[in-house]
């Protein structure tokens, strides 16, 4: 049963939050199709459809951990201590599904920034769809997102892709805590033409 069977779609949107601690099960194949199809309705100036996703699951998650963490260590990132590596590996082992995220940049009349924003809105649609189907997700840039070797080994050539990180997707591993959202008025003003 999806979240929108019990609450309004607007309430579902406003109650979404990132969930880092995930476990099996992942969305079923038909649910994953719905989730990925939701990305296709993202706003997209020029109809370039710049979003690109790689599905990573099962034994390939351990291969991703090996590849990404080794690349991060080779990059010289001092934050990848043995303790941090152990923690990341344990976290990844509990997550049943990852999506690698990228924007494929086309040269032409559409600005690169707009193409990256389109890919970001596609990811937001995925996050919302995951939540509305009763699962949890977490957008991570800590698995070597800014290490070119990781991007390349995932098949996103750095000459024409901007790598955006990973979505971890699964069932929340704990009760989803409520979060107090800021009032939109703190971030909004009305322009009066002056």
TrEMBL record:
What this protein is called in its record is Putative NAD(P)H nitroreductase
| Annotated source species | Bordetella genomosp. 5
Which protein family is named in the record?
Belongs to the nitroreductase family.
Q: Where is the Nitroreductase domain?
A: 14-170
Task: List the Gene3D superfamilies.
Answer: NADH Oxidase (3.40.109.10)
Q: What is the lineage of its organism?
A: Bacteria, Pseudomonadati, Pseudomonadota, Betaproteobacteria, Burkholderiales
- Ligase among keywords: no
Q: Which residues bind FMN?
A: 16-18, 45, 139-141
Going by the entry's taxonomy, the superkingdom of the source organism is recorded as: Bacteria
Q: What is its EC number?
A: 1.-.-.-
- SUPFAM superfamilies from the UniProt entry: FMN-dependent nitroreductase-like (SSF55469)
Which GO terms fall under molecular function for this chain's record? oxidoreductase activity
| Free-text comment on the cofactor | Binds 1 FMN per subunit.
Its needed co-factors are: FMN
Alphabetic keyword roster: Flavoprotein, FMN, NAD, NADP, Oxidoreductase
